[in-house]
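Hi V.,

Quick status before I head out on leave. The structure for the redesign project is tokenized and pasted below; the design run finished overnight.
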């Protein structure tokens, strides 16, 4: 589940992936989006547009538009960020051990463009099918509302 290899992927491993230069990402994203998505920043708790959203639809990566989560996987954790109990599929995200801030956490990144999304936590006692909380920055997502 954990990927600690930060080496540049070989061309065969990038099939179906979005690969851009940092200059291209800076041109595409706002400064705050870039800070969170490309530099693993975090938005302040309870400030994101999707924290309390209950709209049905698909949550996509703001950087590459990949489908990541569905609204029926979202739950109210009262933590200040949108929370999901599972990604749409395991290949939609990748995991990296994160030892920053004197904690052991697991970072969640987009499986398509490698943008930072947030972190996943386990064993917190939420009544969800997976007992996991994908704590995701709203600024890392867009919501495609169900028609």
């Amino acid at each position: 589940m954990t990927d600690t290899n930060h080496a540049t992927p070989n061309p065969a491993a990038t099939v179906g992936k979005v690969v851009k230069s940092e200059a291209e990402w800076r041109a595409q994203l706002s400064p705050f989006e870039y800070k969170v998505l490309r530099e693993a920043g975090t938005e302040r708790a309870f400030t994101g547009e999707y924290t309390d959203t209950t709209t049905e639809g698909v949550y996509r990566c703001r950087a590459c538009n990949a489908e990541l989560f569905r609204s029926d996987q979202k739950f109210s954790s009262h933590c200040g960020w949108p929370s999901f109990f599972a990604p749409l599929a395991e290949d939609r995200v990748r995991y990296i051990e994160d030892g920053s801030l004197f904690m052991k956490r697991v970072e969640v990144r987009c499986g398509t463009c490698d943008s930072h999304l947030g972190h996943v936590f386990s064993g917190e006692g939420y009544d969800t099918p997976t007992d996991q909380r994908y704590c995701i920055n709203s600024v890392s997502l867009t919501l495609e509302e169900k028609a």
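Above is the designed sequence. The CA atoms of residues 48 and 138 lie 5 Å apart.

G. will cover questions while I'm gone.

Best,
W.
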